[in-house]
Design brief:
The chain is an all-alpha fold and 255 residues long. The chain has helices at 2-32, 43-57, 71-105, 123-138, 141-151, 164-206, 212-248. The protein has one domain (2-248).
Amino acid sequence: MTEAIAGLLGLGQETLAAWFAVFLRVGAVMAVLPAFGERAVPARIRLGLALAFTFVVAPAAPPMAAADLTPQAFGAEVAAGLILGLGVRLFILALQTAGAMAAQATSLAQIFGGSAGVDPQPAVGHLLTMAGLALAVMSGLHIRVAEALIASYGPLPAGVFPDAGVVASWGTWRVAEAFALAFSLSAPFVVASLVYNVALGVINRAMPQLMVAFVGAPALTLGGLALLALAAPSLLEVWLGAFGQYLADPLAAAP
């Protein structure tokens, strides 16, 4: 009887250790995940969400042998989670960068929209970020993240440190893609600002006595706000499509 109880206790400890390894991967993702991992979200809520995701992912995760449950394996799980989470986080940075570029082009960069506990950023970037987070959550972000976590055990096996060269190549490609997406989102504002300033320069050359700066600056701001109202839905649709494509295969190799 005692031997049977001891065997059950050993089995329970191995199961808990395996689930703890899954929790480490999930917790690393939750630390940087958009919406769920924001600094404005209380730590207890984030911990509860990490536990909830663990209960979803652990039954579908490949089992780990007792010999593989080592501190090195636990560190590998944290590294794998951070890689997956930072890739998702890059899409929020793309929105913030696009908002900063659009605000700079339309003379709205001096208007800050940050809130408590959030790094100050132009109001345009804050608006796009909040709208993007809302759209991501409404489109089933929690389901897509759970699917991505389960699928991540293929390219990032449990207990195995990711290859540094592969991660460096993948990270460089993802950062380049994020900046390309940011420039694509801000392109309407940059192009409109360029055309407007060129036209303003021609007017200034034709009518030197006219103070075009006093006339042009308010018009540029008004035009920027109008362009934001017209273009924001399409820009967010493009961003959401790219975000969904990433979550469908988050660890795809660079082309």
